[in-house]
Amino acid sequence: MPRARGSKHPADGLPRRRVAAIQRRLLRWYAAHRRRLPWRRARPDPYRVWVAEIMLQQTQISTVIPYYERFVARFCNVAALAAADEEEVLALWSGLGYYSRARSLLRSARLLIERHDGRLPRQRDLLESLPGIGRYTAGAILSIAFSQPEPAVDGNVRRVLTRLMLTKQKPVQRSRCQRTAAGRPRRAGAPAPGAGRFSEPTAAELEVRARDLVSSVPPADFNQAIMELGALVCRPSAPLCATCPLSRVCEARRLGVQEQVPSPRKQPATVRQSRAVALIHNNGRVLVERAFSPGTPRGLWDLPGTLIPENSEPRRHLERHLRSQGLGTRVGARLACVEHGITFRRIRCTAYETVLDGSALSESPAAGRPARRWVERSHLRSLPMGSAARRLLASCRRPI
Ligand code: SF4
């Protein structure tokens, strides 16, 4: 039944005219500003959309593109991926980080062959039952690949919607010196416009609003448009409100509080750690072991090494560790050092020139010890290794 002009949306009370204005402005902006990305196609391939969405979790687009292109060139569909060896999948993922995503992709591909004839299902519950696919990723696949009006609320969308649709009652904490929407400094202690009059929507409310907005428009374009706006314009800090297509319908902008919402999520404190690894080589081959200790992603190959407790001398500690793992060695000069992050940890990893003390080395692991391999330097590229080990090996070609 037709609704009267200005009537409320049934789900959350958003005025229909406002929903329509947001949809119209955003889609017009997207048509002019969308980035050309390899997974954005006129006729999206569900498999490629899925691979891209998994790679984009926690990772920037510019980092993902070369990995995505190599991955879909090697595994062009679900069947090719399902038949792959985990080591090859991890090797293609090497350097992208969060390796559980690669293992989940592989497990899901095998489940798709077993249960769904090698196709991605079109039902949210079935998609969400696959490893690595949560609420956001399912919504992105359903809307982008299957044109279903499903919400897909990632961090960018959460930020845009929160700013657009602030509601009542929760004051925003302000620092001593703030600027007004026009850019002029505000007197310390002066009340901010809107302070004490609004609150941020909850995750459930955001989902309802995202669902309202994606209805009655092309879902793939709309969801990608709002993600794109969050990435390019409605940035976490210094949002480009002056050029934003939604500035005239944005509540946070109207109240001059766009930089204060959404309130930042609590991040775990960064933990700093040191790790020492041994560069052991023999006739052009390098000794590597399956990642075994904290600080290295499971399933990857790495240089043999260990975390160094505070106040320990790294060479001696590394030597003791290697001996406990059945490797008698002499640890020598420091060769290279890199720093990398795994979730909330920053790990400073140092490589040392190390020589075996002549004891025979078995590649078959004893109980409780990592598998080991001698690998030709020229073959290291085809091995799944973390970016820290790769960067160290690259640096060790020229001693520091
Ligand atoms: S006007 Fe500013 S805060 Fe509002 S959606 Fe646009 S960029 Fe974001």
Written account of the structure:
The protein is of the alpha+beta class. The protein folds into 3 domains: 1-18 and 153-174 and 194-265, Endonuclease Iii, domain 2 (Orthogonal Bundle), CATH 1.10.1670; 34-146, Endonuclease III, domain 1 (Orthogonal Bundle), CATH 1.10.340.30; 271-396, Alpha-Beta Complex (Nucleoside Triphosphate Pyrophosphohydrolase), CATH 3.90.79. It is 38% helix and 16% strand. The protein has helices at 16-33, 46-56, 61-74, 78-82, 86-93, 100-116, 124-128, 135-146, 155-164, 203-214, 219-232, 251-255, 314-324, 387-396, and strands at residues 167-170, 178-179, 185-186, 198-199, 271-279, 281-282, 285-290, 301-302, 305-308, 329-342, 345-356, 372-376. The protein has a 4-stranded mixed β-sheet with strand order 9-5-11-10. Strands 6, 7, 8 and 12 form a 4-stranded antiparallel β-sheet that branches. Strand 10 (329-342) and strand 11 (345-356) form a beta hairpin. Helix 1 (16-33) packs across helix 11 (219-232), helix 9 (155-164) packs across helix 10 (203-214) and helix 9 (155-164) crosses helix 11 (219-232). Residues 1-6 and 186-195 have low confidence and may be disordered. The protein binds iron/sulfur cluster. The site of iron/sulfur cluster has 15 residues, from helix 9 and helix 12.
CATH class of the largest domain: Alpha Beta
Strand order of the largest sheet: 9-5-11-10
Beta-strand proportion? 15-25%
Share in helix: 25-40%
Q: Give the CA-based shape.
A: elongated
What distance lies between the first and last C-alpha atoms, to the nearest angstrom? 75 Å
Q: What's the number of domains?
A: 3
* Sheet of most strands: 4 strands, mixed
How confident overall, as mean pLDDT?
Answer: 87
Low-confidence stretches: 1-6, 186-195
Q: What class do helices, strands and sheet pairing give?
A: alpha+beta
- Note the run of SSEs as H and E: HHHHHHHHHEEEEHHHEEEEEHEEEH
Q: What is the CATH homologous superfamily assignment of the largest domain?
A: Nucleoside Triphosphate Pyrophosphohydrolase
CATH architecture of the largest domain: Alpha-Beta Complex
Number of strands: 12
Number of separate helices? 14
Oligomer: single chain
Taking all Cα atoms into account, the compactness measure Rg is 26 Å
Query: Bound compounds, please?
Result: iron/sulfur cluster
| CATH third-level topology of the largest domain | Nucleoside Triphosphate Pyrophosphohydrolase
